[in-house]
Amino acid sequence: MDNIDQAGVRVVSLAAELGSTDAFHISRSLVRRTPPVMRHRHEFFEVFWITTGYCTHFINARQEQITPGMLAFIRPDDTHAFQNFNTAPCRMINVAFSQATAGFLRDRYGDELGNRFFWSESETPSSYLLDQKSLDELDYLEKALDRGARTPARIEAFLLHVMTTLLSNETEVPGTAPAWLLNACEAMHDPASLREGVQFLVRNSGRSHEHVARSFRRHFGQTPSSWVNGMRMSLAARLLLSDDQPILDIALACGIEDLSHFYRLFRQTHGVSPRRYRRRQQVNLVDP
Q: What pTM was computed for the model?
């Protein structure tokens, strides 16, 4: 049963949703257009993502504009609520699990996970904007999780895959970023847009170059060029592992014509050269 704390915030418990042997709960919700009556917080951890539509996320002392593909890691002390601000339906998927599971993951993998995801110390929760490929992969993982038993091992495997594999090359999105900037960033997941680079980002934002640059420094702590190059290096890493096309072709596919510049950016991002990155991931353990 839910309770109301001293601050007038509803405290949601998993006890009513979980069976005696369940380690997690999955829900699919439709965000209403009416203003939320009350914010709530949890006695558990939760990851949610938006599949369709747009909504306002009232989170702690802030308001965020949430777009399709946005994924967020909610901590027990976060107080939040949602409201659809568009005529189209806004749908989300939530995966909730116990504090004991979160504690195990932090104790076991804390050095690798750091102060990120559920353990971020920022005022707003960690959030990421997924491209369609990552969103499709997350959809597959969630459906597979939903089909099986609600055991600790399965929720731990799901969370670890999301945090260490699905989001390994994704950039965290600040909750303070305005909707126009998030939409412009989302469009950059298209390789064709990424090849054009900052020019497309600025044109698609509907703002001046100076306005976009100021907004990036304020919300992302970097320039539009450095952010675009980070996106390009994430694409390059995926292309290096997906087939055997020449590295020059991969550089051109990412919008970088200078091969030496491509090598320099890749090494700065991934710590090794593109060739070594590919070779390291293709070690043959059957016939070394």
A: 0.72
